[in-house]
């Protein structure tokens, strides 16, 4: 199996060459439930994310927004999920054919994630500094001093004041908005090409929400990333997305420049 996957990786690299996309999802189809009566929750999803683009994906609860991105990067448990078709091209390789190790490197260095609830993503027993450091140690060859300096720099980037003090604190000592900004710092630690934000502001008050949106938007330009921002609230992404894509029942039902989709 491992051998087959490695062959798949090589073929993927050879076939694509230089790419004009940051991420290309082509015909992704994901099912749950018994094979003889499957529930197709992601159905032939196809789109490109361009370099530097912010793509807002909106749609009602259960429309397949989360499942399709999680499946794309190997974060959906299978079983129960089954990826029954498609390709997910990133840097010339089909992520669906990569080994677990290769995918873990892609997720560490190539594609960063921020999820809805930082309390479940952060370890309550480890300091913020320890968690930031772990994210970097796994993927960057830096000395301990460099890593510490980078941790301070990352907290500054997400506008957390007194970063040296914060690094010594535990998640419960930070506000919800700060915890979410720590998650963004962790996701950006290895300077990914793509940041995927899945409802990152849902649990936050309005002020913290707009702060997180603005921070991600300015870091996107600074770091030259592309962003996929998943939300059920069009208002959250209206000000920052270049393109909006609407999902319904596992399909993309509408896609276009933000101002066009918004006026519809
Ligand atoms: N482990 C699972 N087993 C069975 N069905 C699942 C599982 N995980 C997700 N689904 C189903 O897949 C569908 C798509 O879910 P998904 O989480 O992608 O929706 P979403 O658009 O992100 O909505 P939300 O905003 O509520 O997260 C839903 O019908 C959901 O019930």
From TrEMBL:
Family in the record: Belongs to the ABC transporter superfamily.
Pfam families the UniProt entry points to: ABC_tran
Domain of life: Bacteria
Source organism of this protein record: Salipiger mucosus DSM 16094
Signal peptide per UniProt: none
Cellular compartments annotated: Cell inner membrane
UniProt keyword annotations, A-Z: ATP-binding, Cell membrane, Membrane, Nucleotide-binding, Transport
GO CC terms: plasma membrane
Membrane as UniProt keyword: yes
GO-annotated biological processes: transmembrane transport
InterPro entries: AAA+_ATPase, ABC_Ni/Peptide_Import, ABC_transporter-like_ATP-bd, ABC_transporter-like_CS, P-loop_NTPase
Entry GO MF terms: ATP binding; ATP hydrolysis activity
Predominant localisation class: membrane
Protein name from the UniProt record: Oligopeptide transport ATP-binding protein OppD
Topology with respect to the bilayer: Peripheral membrane protein
Lineage of the organism: Bacteria, Pseudomonadati, Pseudomonadota, Alphaproteobacteria, Rhodobacterales
Domain ABC transporter: 23-263
Gene3D superfamilies the record matches: P-loop containing nucleotide triphosphate hydrolases
């Amino acid at each position: 199996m491992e051998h087959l996957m490695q062959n798949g990786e090589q073929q993927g690299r050879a076939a694509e060459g230089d790419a004009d996309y940051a991420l290309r999802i082509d015909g992704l189809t994901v099912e749950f439930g018994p094979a003889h009566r499957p529930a197709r929750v992601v159905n032939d999803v196809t789109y490109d994310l361009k370099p530097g683009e912010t793509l807002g994906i909106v749609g009602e609860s259960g429309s397949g927004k989360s499942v399709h991105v999680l499946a794309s990067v190997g974060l959906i448990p299978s079983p129960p999920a089954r990826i029954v078709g498609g390709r997910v091209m990133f840097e010339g390789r089909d992520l669906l054919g990569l080994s677990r190790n290769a995918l873990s490197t892609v997720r560490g260095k190539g594609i960063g994630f921020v999820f809805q609830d930082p309390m479940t993503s952060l370890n309550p027993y480890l300091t913020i500094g320890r968690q930031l450091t772990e994210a970097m140690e796994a993927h960057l060859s830096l000395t301990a001093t460099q890593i510490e300096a980078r941790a301070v720099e990352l907290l500054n980037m997400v506008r957390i004041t007194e970063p040296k003090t914060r690094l010594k604190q535990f998640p419960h000592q930070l506000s919800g908005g700060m915890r979410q900004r720590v998650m963004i710092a962790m996701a950006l630690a290895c300077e990914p090409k793509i940041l995927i934000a899945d409802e990152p502001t849902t649990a936050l008050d309005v002020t913290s929400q707009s702060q997180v949106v603005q921070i991600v938007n300015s870091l996107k330009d600074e770091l030259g990333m592309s962003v996929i921002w998943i939300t059920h609230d069009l208002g959250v992404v209206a000000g920052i997305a270049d393109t909006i894509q609407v999902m319904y029942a596992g399909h993309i039902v509408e896609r276009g420049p933000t101002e066009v989709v918004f006026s519809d």
